[in-house]
Amino acid sequence: MNMLEKALERSLEKSKNADDKAELKKSEKDSLKAQSEISEPISEHQNSAADVVRFDWNRLGELGFIKKDDSHSRIAEEYRSIKRPLVTNALGARKFDINNANLILVTSSIPGEGKTFTSINLAISIAAEMDKKVLLVDADVAKPSISKVLGIKTKVGLIDFLETDSIPLSDIILQTEIPGLRIITAGKSHKFSTELLASNKMIALSKELSERYPDRIVIFDTPPLLATTQAEVLASQMGQVILVVGAELTPQNYVMESVKKLQNCSDVVLALLNKAQRSLNPGYYGYGQY
Predict the structure, then answer these.
(1) CA distances in angstroms from 5 to 2, 8, 12, 18, 21, listed in the order given
(2) pLDDT of 230-260, one tens digit each?
(3) What is the architecture, at CATH level 2, of domain 49-274?
(4) Which of 23, 55, 65, 160 is the most exposed place for a label (fewest CB within 10 A)?
């Protein structure tokens, strides 16, 4: 092999090595890009149509809930009256006077008074407004009801998010067929659920939910006050509290004991008389028989 041929061979070999290195760099870059795309949290607004939670409106109507596109029924009118002071406190002029004004906790003294019924109807009613967004959180982690009532099947929720740092917030926020309504389910059962709800991570989550979306109202459905300490723990992080009272069901001393638990927790505590019969008093409502 003469010198010219050797030089040509070396040139071809260098060219081949350069091409191989370039191909390797391109492959590494593509791999890193793919890993980045996989690990990057998906925004709650990027859910596909298949991920949208859809409701059985016929069943909900039979249970007494507000129906889809329902604007003139008795239950719809009643929740218009209920939500107005809450929305005014959360998004109106008073929001600057109330800490976490857009965080609303719904609880009761004892089970069976209709707190979940109230939470869901309130969320649907507020979300029906054109310029309002609602996040409904099932914080009754001991006996979650929102998923059961609305027919939601999901593997992760609030407790899963609080327990680990590997689940981004966007993974537990579910989009629904109502454009202005999102839902966070309770997640798995946990023996230290009360401690998780009282943790710094839960406090940080409440703050983030309150401040990130100032036009969003967040409704927390929580356990009864006299059944567990979880509602009392969460109430300290809320701006407004709705205490649902079962008409002709809840003893007065239970109600007074619940109010005492809330005295140092929130700026605003509103009582709601549930399952009452309408009378001539315009402030006395019947909220269904769920």
Answers:
(1) 5, 5, 11, 20, 24
(2) 999 999 899 999 999 988 888 999 999 999 8
(3) 3-Layer(aba) Sandwich (3.40)
(4) 23
